[in-house]
Amino acid sequence: MTPSSPSLRRLLFSGRHPLATHHHLRCRHSLSASAPAPAAGAYAATPAPSRDRAARLAAAVHGAAAAKNFAHAIRLTKSLVQASSSSPGRSPASTAPTSAGAAFAALASTSTSPAPALGVLVIALCQMRLLDEALSVFRRLRTLPELPACNAILDGLVKACRFGCAWELFDEMLSRGMVPSVVTYNTLINVCRHQGDVMKAQEVWDQMVGRQIDPNVVTYTTMICALCEEGCIGDAERVFGAMKEAGMQPNLYTYNVLMSSHCQRRDVNIAFVLYQELLKSGLVPNAVIFTTLIDGFCKVKRFGEAKEMFLDMPRFGVAPTVPVFNSLMDGAFKSGNAREALAVYQEMTRHGLCPDEFTCSIVVRGLCDGGQIQVAARFLEGVRLSGANLNAGAYNALIDEYCKNGNLEEALATCTRMTEDGIEPNVVSYTSLIDGYSEVGNMQMAMAIYTEMVAKGIQPNVVTYTALIRGHAKNGGLDAAFRLHKEMIEKGVSPNAITVSVLVDGMCRENRVQDAVRFVMEYSGMEYNDLHSFFSNSSAEENHLIPNGVIHMTLIYGLYIDSQHYEAGKLFSYMRKSGMVPDSFTYTLLIRGQCILGYVLNAMTLYADMMKIGVKPTRRKVVCPEIWSWVPLNDTRTVVS
């Protein structure tokens, strides 16, 4: 083994405990439960090509395999299998077992040493995605086929996401004397990547190195991909460095994996440095590389640099693709430049590219976000009439915007058109409608839509339940809100911080501040006796576990309107020490409360803290946020700061 093959345990995980020997996952149907091979008589009874033709094809396969012309041997074997499956009135899937068996019989009966050709049959069946037939042939072989056949069947199982079967078959191959190659281990590391098990991938790597097998470019790239997908970008960078130190040239896929991971973390500058390194190494970027960088720049609203990358594509002979145009349009919309986004759309059509379903969703959503709902509706109608591909996303964007604007009639009409166009409303469609009707207090209609949704087999998610809970809590139906809260938990949908906040808000509306605090404490896993003892407990700060700023601010508002200014201030202190940032409205409440109590110095301190963390004070009336829209009858709905 060369010095360029370090143990991955030493390279990345020197400070970690080694993982215990893993227990292989079992496939849904065990390999031993594979369909048994039919008897020879069954093959004879199966419609098949003439014996002479089968014999000629089989002889040709044997000859090509003996000459080591495996590509030709595989093509001939596929012809043999396909010819064996030609049966009037029967689908290829239904004839696959008998055709594979007939091919096996033909190859086995036309040579005294059929093993090489039967290994080719395994490879051909895998390439034809007839994995069960390939497994059946593999298990009928008295001797282990050549390594390429073993690798082919393992790779086929991985592509079919039958990971447990792949591990089980690998164990069986080892027991039958297989000597794995770097290709074998690359496949196994890829299994670990798909299973999200980086530690097992490390074990496979170290086992490979222990067998004196050097990793190649694919090995390094697959490991880098596995680490990036699990968020271990630092470890991925170290493997990337080790790869270059070993004298291996990363390929475009290697670079793209790292660039994409950095862009997802909004580290587009690092991604661009990798792009420059790619160019210096002599590699020519392709459309995927450009798409990654353009999308990365757009995500951080650096549209100008994204446009420069786009204009640089022709220099490398790379034609722009629909995903590139989609990223540019999305970036332009998010930068507030709808005119530029529509210009990009027009340029895409001038290139002769047809917009896909994502294109339409991006344009409709971008126009809606910019307040141009009528333009969005006309665009969607034009695309619909043109016959272009549409998905639920474009309709959902329009439905959601209509609901936000209170135009529920048009939202329902859009949902109806969506169904007429053959696109079924999904959980997002129904949730937008439910939220819209809940917003205007029409809980009867909101519940009717919810009932229809469930009847159609569409499972509500946390956003759906939260919209219903908020509607009931806001309109005096707190009992119904808590019933829905119980239902969602029973159905396995976990409430989030917003769900808790709307329930707290509902209790504060009914002057049940003690109950609200108790509910939050229980949700946070904290012990609670009463409000006074909680805030007077010196250890409460250490045990403070309220997980979200929205919950804090909702409770602060509830305490404030209940004239419990000290407790509101105490909770605010916990919030700040937890690293959460209150909004301007929360600061305004507390500053006003301190002034009412005569603690002007405290009020000035709060104002200074507000300025220090960058929360801008308001110089006009502050309207209470929707989640805190209730105030006592003898108070106003606004606070002057």
TrEMBL record:
Entry keyword Membrane: no
Pfam families in UniProt: PPR (PF01535), PPR_1 (PF12854), PPR_2 (PF13041)
Keywords: Repeat, Transit peptide
PPR repeat ranges, renumbered to this chain: 146-180, 181-215, 216-250, 251-285, 286-320, 321-355, 391-425, 426-460, 461-495, 583-617
Protein name as it appears in the record: Pentatricopeptide repeat-containing protein
Chain coiled-coil ranges: none
Signal sequence residues: none
Top-rank taxon: Eukaryota
Organism this protein belongs to: Urochloa decumbens
Annotated transmembrane regions: none
NCBIfam families: PPR (TIGR00756)
S-adenosyl-L-methionine among keywords: no
